[in-house]
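Translate sequence into structure tokens.
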Amino acid sequence: VDLLLDRILTNNRVEKTRLGLGFTTNSKLSKRFELGIFAGWGIADREVKWGTHVQVTPLGDDRLYFGVSRSQDLVETGFRRLGIRPERGLHQNIYREFGIRNWYLKDMEYVDTREIWLGMRLPSDLGLRIGRRLESSLNAYGARFDGDSTYRFDEAELLLRWAPGAQYAKSGGRRTILSNKAPVFLARYTRGLESDRGDFAFHALAFAMKHSFSAFRGGKATFQLFAGGNDRSLPRSRMRVYRSNFAKGNFSELPGAFNTMR
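Result follows.
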């Protein structure tokens, strides 16, 4: 079992300080089953946050996997990095970040999320993941999980990953890229559904390119590029967050995006 150290102590303007604990099983326990759980309590808002996920890999690797997750958490509003999930741990929350950045956030929200997904590895270095997500969100300033001004989202998601010519190392049923002459490409399409569980019908696209290479006498350097678009009429919960400095005015401000930093 792996202890999630970044869940023990975190800080932000809403909770001030969160005390918590989290763990996930690893391949030493099972190569075909993964269970993760976290829980925490905010000192200032006096709210409990929690989450769990279960992922099954019946073949013992990423040729086929499926899983479910459920969580109630406090996160930065909007999508960072255009909502591209990490290459490993695709169940991970596409909002959450840790670090000193959280002290400077001016826009956070409580989210109640249910998600299910199915993924597989295809020929020609392609990976495919499809998912369905139900989520409600409300602004964190003066609000709680049981607030009455929530946004509801019912979403289907398709994620494609292409890593041409990549060389991998296999450990515990998981593949990790050792090197690749070409970048890794990711594309994410989200379809918002207007239903009895969702308030918004929309389309959103996001693309990412990531490349790592040897540099600085045996070191490793990585660069990433992101692009995408979304409906500007959506609430900020589904808008894009642009990275900026702490200046009130910033040259990188984009149409249909906003800055969560104060």
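Note: The longest strand covers residues 108-122.
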